[in-house]
Amino acid sequence: MLENLFKGTGPITKLILKQNRFKIVAWLLSLVIVTLAVASAYPGVYKSEQDIMAYALTMDNPAMIAMLGPGYDAADYNTASIFANEMLIFTLIAVAVMNILLVSRATRADEEDGQMELVRALSVGKLSYLSSSLIMAVMLNGILTVLVGASLSLLNLEGMDLEGTFLYGAILGVTGLTFAGFTALFAQLSETSRGATGFSFAAMITFYLIRAIGDTGQEGLSLVSPLGWAVRTDVFVENHWWPVLLLLLLLVVLIGLTFYLNSIRDMGAGFLPERKGKIHASTFLQTPVGLAFRLQRTNIIAWGIGVFVLSASFGSILGELETYFADMEILQVYLQGDSGTSMRDSFISLLMGIMSMIASISVVMTIVKVKSEESKNQTELIYSRAVSRNKLLGSYLGLAIITSFLMQTFIATGLWSVGSWVLTDELDTGTIFLSAYVYLPAIWFLVALTTLLIGLKPKITGLTWFYVVYCFLIIYVGDLFDLPEWVKKLSVFHFVPYMPLDDFVWSSTIAITIGSVIVSIMGVIGYNKRDIIG
């Protein structure tokens, strides 16, 4: 009986791996290379015992604990433990995102597109497609574990023992598998891939917030979150393996429940059915821009709430910056470029850059929807009516621009509202909002670059995400690791004035905007000339 349920798992696994091979290789290379690059740079950042002790002092700050997780005892800090303390939680989130996107694509998205139905028409078992998707996740995270563990061990940094390096890799792998399990479960509950992905990201954010709240005072609450378990491995110090075992146990439960739900539901159905819509579409929905907005309404709202809450949480620590960071040389180098500038302005400048990069993800997703709808053969249905290519692509471009304004407004509002509440002197409203809006041209350039790829070579549109990650790394660690100037200039965000630390510069703002318009026009021309998939 069981053999029949899983019949054909091997060939289907090969099919799924072949379909996702480029994404898998890209994700693995990105994660391993970034991990190695950052780890190898740490000895040059924390050069002295004074730098290490300064970092240990910063980890007494509840805001830092909420962001990174609980720190170590001051005597336990060295190059390796600081690296783990700073990078583990962010790498865990990146690995979780990788698993959510790949497993959602290999489960509910394939079912939604009809590919699973074609495969199930053959002599294969009912659970074979799901099992193949999970096998892909196991292979992916297993390879990641080995690559990260082995490559870190070769660096031979201070405090980086062999057990610790492979524990670092293992906790990344099992956390990724856990979120793969959650995504597979949500794929059974939701009727759409968008719903499965949305539930998965909501779970990830919820687990992060629970961990953050618990780590700052309610440790029992942190133990409810898988991310709370993961940051308690004490990598390169105590090397606790119990979080790995707990995550594996949770994974077994998730997989068992997922297989059961998959076995009792019908193809295309979900246990949380979509809300029934209206019988007749509104006049606005019947327009290209109305349809584009309706398809991405939930995504825009969710991202707006997310960036507002995150900005507000950073605004809540503005009153403590001088207390914790003023006398720390290493952090002054990180946050403050010239003498005489306030720590608050430096922090806001860095924060605006990072938050703008995060917000740009939702904006790029808005324009990428053009390509995904085309891949699903939905676009040709629109073009069967009296709709021009310029009108359709222009609708998505316009929506992306509006989304960028909304996201930057949410960022500024969150930081200003909470920051003004905790500070004795109120933040200047105009300065905060201008510090957010100054990044709009750079975000528009990302939209333009995506449009160009959609117009000329839609198959490589995913390269935009590599550029987004590159820009984020330049903002986050470019100055800290003293990267060459030409490397920084490859990022369009490098040319944005770091307000309020720097003065507003019209020349760079206008130049980036004009460049974005030119690149967008090139993309529109290419889109009009090429064949539509379908």
UniProtKB/TrEMBL annotation:
The chain crosses the membrane at residues 24-45, 87-106, 127-154, 166-189, 196-214, 241-261, 300-319, 347-368, 393-416, 436-456, 463-484, 504-527. The keyword Lipoprotein does not apply. It comes from the Bacteria. Keywords: Membrane, Transmembrane, Transmembrane helix. This is ABC transporter polyketide tetronasin permease. It comes from Caldibacillus thermoamylovorans. The lineage of its organism: Bacteria, Bacillati, Bacillota, Bacilli, Bacillales.
